[in-house]
């Protein structure tokens, strides 16, 4: 497994792994008809956008690491009552 693939499968560096997996499963189930999976793609895009904005805010504020860990993200999502995307 190459370095980039390992990073994508690491929960601490990829906050949208669940959404990514769901979109891949949808593609598999729909014989790769992308029109059938547009809701999954949109959810993934919204997830990436949300966490990218969090990462930028943390960088501006000097918080390290830039991306919250998986445990921190769970706490953040619990505090706001679930996923906002």
From TrEMBL:
Coiled coil: none annotated. GO terms for cellular component: mitochondrial intermembrane space. It is found in: Mitochondrion intermembrane space. Pfam families: COX6B. The keyword Mitochondrion applies. Keywords: Disulfide bond, Mitochondrion. Signal peptide: none annotated. Belongs to the CHCHD7 family. This is Coiled-coil-helix-coiled-coil-helix domain-containing protein 7. It comes from Seriola dumerili.
């Amino acid at each position: 497994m190459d370095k980039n693939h390992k990073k994508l499968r690491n929960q601490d560096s990829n906050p949208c792994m669940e959404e990514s997996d769901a979109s891949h499963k949808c593609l598999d189930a729909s014989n790769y008809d992308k029109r059938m999976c547009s809701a999954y793609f949109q959810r993934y895009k919204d997830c990436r956008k949300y966490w990218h904005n969090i990462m930028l805010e943390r960088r501006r504020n000097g918080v390290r690491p830039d991306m919250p860990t998986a445990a921190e993200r769970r706490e953040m999502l619990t505090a706001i009552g679930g996923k906002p995307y």
